[in-house]
Design brief:
Elements: E1 2-8, H1 10-27, E2 31-37, E3 51-54, E4 66-72, E5 76-80, H2 82-88, E6 102-105, H3 109-112, E7 118-123, E8 129-133, E9 139-140, H4 143-151, E10 156-160, H5 161-170, E11 174-175, E12 180-182, E13 187-192, H6 199-212
Parallel strand pairs: 1-2, 1-3, 6-9, 6-10
Antiparallel strand pairs: 3-13, 4-13, 5-10, 5-11, 5-12, 7-8, 7-12
């Protein structure tokens, strides 16, 4: 029982954390939540937060000691609309991204500095790394807006799978250079250090770890399209009616 004050990033908090907290509260009706969605990670101890769900390791948490726990992998992938790729072509390698319109998200302008516009990518199979400087006509501090611009065909975006899984499944977005991804932004639980963690907090963190452990936002595999027609049974012809015999007068 008791109140839990949490902070979380806007997109993940709205799409995934909010429903999870509602389910937890249904199981534990004496627990109350105050959830603050924000672009900047607050100083948890100074501002009275019990914890935060954040998409980075514990950076910029202020001067208070903190503890962290990784809840799930957060894979950011390159995506574009089919219309954009038809109009501009598909890049053959990561360096070719510099020749395309790329939609850049400035999530933290104060910390970005010279890293703004540089995508640190890693190949999923051989772990090759590449830091590619990209450019484009559109940039914003909103991942949701970047996703919408990509859907509208304005360029290539680097988005988390949890943000674009439905669009990938429907074919509204497709992966570009599918072997490459950005994986340095895993989903973490962060909390100020305290000698004894309340039971409600332990239950919540275990619940979230189990909920997100299998990455429920992973797109479902695309079903193969049938290329052969189903056999069609021929309609059975009704038996011909017998002609009645004519009577001889």
């Amino acid at each position: 029982s008791g109140l839990i004050r949490l902070a979380a990033t806007l997109g993940f908090g709205r799409l995934w954390l909010g429903p999870a907290l509602a389910d937890f509260q249904r199981k534990h009706p004496r627990v109350q939540f105050q959830l603050q969605l924000t672009e900047q990670l607050p100083d948890l101890a100074a501002e009275g937060f019990d914890g935060a769900i954040w998409l980075w390791a514990a950076r910029g948490t202020g001067t208070a000691q903190w503890v962290s726990r990784r809840l799930a992998r957060n894979q950011r992938v390159l995506v574009a609309s089919p219309a954009y790729l038809v109009a501009h072509g598909t890049p053959r390698d990561v360096q070719a991204l510099s020749d395309h319109q790329c939609i850049v998200v400035r999530e933290n302008a104060r910390l970005a500095g010279p890293r703004f516009g540089v995508w640190p990518l890693q190949h999923e199979r051989d772990k090759t790394s590449a830091h590619v400087r990209v450019q484009g006509a559109l940039s914003a501090n909103s991942g949701e807006l970047a996703r919408d611009w990509a859907l509208q065909g304005h360029g290539i975006a680097l988005r988390s799978l949890w943000d674009i899984a439905p669009q990938l499944e429907r074919g509204e977005l497709v992966r570009v250079l599918p072997g490459w991804a950005m994986t340095d932004a895993d989903i973490h639980w962060l909390a100020p250090w305290q000698p004894r963690t309340p039971r409600r907090m332990r239950l919540l963190v275990d619940f979230l770890a189990e909920r997100f452990r299998n990455e429920p936002w992973q797109p479902a595999p695309i079903k193969p399209v049938k290329t052969t027609a189903e056999p069609v049974s021929r309609p059975t012809r009704a038996p011909a009616a017998r002609r009645g015999s004519r009577r001889t007068p």
